[in-house]
Write a structure and sequence with these properties.
By secondary structure, this protein is of the alpha+beta class. The chain has 16 helices and 30 strands. Helix content is about 25%, strand content about 20%. The longest helix is centred in the middle third of the chain and has 17 residues. It is globular and about 70 Å long. The structure holds oxalic acid (OXD) and manganese (II) ion. The site of manganese (II) ion has 3 residues, from loops. Manganese (II) ion (MN) binds next to loops.
Length: about 600
């Protein structure tokens, strides 16, 4: 069939599958125009100027080339309830994912997509996750009707005509289809943040087809499909097929005095400090301990020919939570977002200075809140899930290795949650299998990164609960198998920066001081640091940590490292109940690890 508008604009599309897909999508969505994106600064500037003219974007003062966007109040976070992994059978996606049979879901969404781009331009974005010259790179095409998404994809991924060259005439690509789901009638004025009502929002993944269909939201992980949808959900399913892993992890580089380098990847649930840890400023820099950033959210891991696990950051930018980012908590992030940054849902002064809780001690006068209303001084001025979008290369702590096509070899994997009680500051798993058990059973209090209740403890295995593209029972099995494929696997640790005293005070200063915990890990790996064996794993004594110059009272240190048998015993039936949800898909070694934990704690392992 003939297209309603020209498909080819700036370059030839000689990949037949791509041409056909774009034609089919255009026929279904019926945009007024189609534009192929080239990822150039000129394209970014043109789209941004257009959004400023229409009032969607506001230029910020004193921050060159930076803009404020305000989303619709109904569209402020990932919508986990409306996120689907769609295969033929429920068993393939398992109990922790939302499932709809793929044919049914495609039928429902096709009806929504029909004519959904009326009055809008359809942008075609060729992008790569991972440096294009990396063996880990994945080529993808996102179609979207949101210019905000195009600009964000410029920052977060590698958008370039070179991607089409790499695709060639018959290469395969991951299909990412996105629409804000708000067609315009002729002459109808557009909303400042068009989106669809919640019951029409769908973030759907078809792992068998390497395809994503997102409808109705323009925000973050719902709409920037390279990130959670491709980088984690589709990638995790591909990784299982291909023998690698896609994980919700930051990657950092740790330099020791004398220049020895170690790489650490760490998985924490959303809004639990991955960006802060990745950009940590070393309090022991004068002693030669430095930290540099490789990535802050996603790690693609594969066994290297040397038997170690190698990590690549597939993203090109940071989509970070703004509140809580300040000169003390994360000076590197503050420096990163001084220019060329998109801010979404922060507060702003009347003269255009952005503001958020945690930026500085006192809010300025005359503040407009994230919805543009005069701030009432009581509610949050910035939305708790307000975000910055900025290129990684702007980060002062970025490592020269961050775009290495081979990635970096990992010394340690770290898992952690937000737990007011229970989990000590740090402990080490006995071996890979026990580490997989520790990671599979980690719990964390929920945050504002997803819609729903905040502060409720939920099991979030490997921080992947919302991001695993297949049955998590099988995912645990894949983790166990990967360990067997590694001759020198990274050591596995668990941390909790958020433990509180009886008085509700955080016991650990966190942020830069987390370096001391990383140093203990490296010393453990080198056989240089002590630890006590406890039922949950190996825990340092205060004297095993480098606490030089740090002012944490002895009683707090003791409380931070305490393992309370009764509290842990209470976890056992909860873990058992969680495991039971996977039925026969639960790998037996995990069940055995639970039995062994119960035995060490002196309790029985039944629910
Ligand atoms: C994110 C998230 O945006 O985890 O990184 O929600
Ligand atoms: Mn994340």
């Amino acid at each position: 069939m003939e297209l309603p508008v020209r498909v080819k604009e700036s370059y030839e599309v000689n990949n037949e599958k791509l041409g056909r897909w774009i034609r089919d999508v255009a026929e279904m969505c019926q945009p007024d125009a189609i534009r192929w994106c080239d990822g150039s600064p000129g394209e970014y500037d043109r789209l941004m100027s257009d959004m400023v003219r229409r009032g969607t974007a506001t230029p910020l003062a004193k921050r060159p080339n930076s803009f404020l966007f305000r989303s619709d109040p109904s569209d402020v976070a990932r919508v986990e309830d409306r996120t689907f992994i769609s295969c033929i059978t429920y068993d393939e996606v398992g109990p922790t994912n939302n499932w709809i049979n793929c044919d049914d879901l495609r039928r429902t969404m096709t009806e929504l997509y029909r004519g959904c781009m009326h009055g809008r331009t359809m942008y075609v974005i060729p992008f790569s996750m991972g440096p294009l010259n990396s063996p880990m790179a994945k080529i993808s095409i996102q179609v979207t009707d949101s210019p905000y998404v195009v600009c964000s994809m410029h920052i977060m991924t590698r958008v370039s005509p070179k991607v089409l060259e790499a695709l060639g005439a018959d290469g395969d690509f991951i299909k990412c289809l996105h629409s804000v789901g708000a067609p315009l009638a002729p002459g109808e004025e557009d909303a400042l943040w068009p989106c669809a009502p919640i019951e029409q929002k769908y973030i759907s993944h078809f792992p068998h087809d390497d395809e994503i269909w997102s409808y109705g939201s323009g925000y973050g992980g719902n709409a920037l499909l390279g990130k959670k949808s491709l980088g984690l959900r589709i990638a995790s399913a591909m990784a299982r097929r291909e023998g690698w892993m896609a994980e919700h992890m930051l990657i950092l580089e740790l330099e020791l005095p004398g220049g020895e380098l170690h790489y650490v990847a760490a998985a924490f649930p959303s809004a639990c400090g991955k960006t802060n840890l990745a950009m940590l400023v070393s309090p022991l820099e004068h002693k030669g301990y430095k930290v540099r950033t490789i990535g802050d959210d996603i790690a693609w891991l594969r066994p290297g020919p040397d038997g170690r696990l190698w990590a690549v950051n597939p993203e090109a930018g940071f989509f970070g939570v703004v509140p809580g980012t300040g000169p003390e908590t994360n000076p590197n992030a503050m420096a990163t977002i001084r220019t060329n940054t998109i801010f979404t849902n922060v507060a702003v002064t009347r003269d255009g200075i952005p503001w958020w809780e945690g930026k500085d001690k006192k809010p300025p006068k005359d503040l407009l809140d994230w919805q543009g209303r005069p701030w009432n001084g009581t509610d949050k001025a910035a939305h708790p899930n307000s975000r910055f979008t900025v290129q990684a290369r702007q980060c002062p702590s970025i490592s020269p290795k961050w775009e290495d096509p081979q990635g970096v070899p990992l010394s340690a994997l770290v898992f952690g949650g937000r737990r007011a009680r229970l989990a000590p500051l740090v402990f080490e798993a006995r071996d890979w299998e026990h580490g997989v058990f520790v990671a599979a059973t980690m719990g964390s209090e929920t945050t504002a990164a997803a819609t729903g209740n905040v502060g409720v403890v939920r099991r979030d295995p490997m921080a992947m609960l919302p991001f695993c593209g297949y049955n998590m029972g099988d995912y645990f099995g894949h983790w166990l198998r990967m360990g067997q494929a590694l001759e020198s696997p990274p050591r596995i640790f668990h941390v909790n920066w958020f433990r509180q005293g009886q008085d509700g005070r955080f016991l650990w200063p966190g942020f830069g001081q987390n370096l001391r915990v990383l140093l203990w890990m490296i010393d453990r790996i080198k056989g240089k640091a002590g630890a006590v064996d406890t039922p949950i794993g190996k825990v340092p004594r205060p004297e095993d940590l480098n606490l030089e110059g740090l002012n944490v009272p002895d009683s707090d240190m003791k409380a931070l490292l305490a393992v309370d048998r009764e509290e842990w015993a209470a976890e056992v039936p909860e873990i058992r109940a969680f495991f039971d949800r996977f039925g026969e898909r639960l790998p037996p070694p995990l069940s055995h690890s639970l039995d062994a934990l119960a035995q060490r704690l002196g309790v029985t392992a039944t629910a």
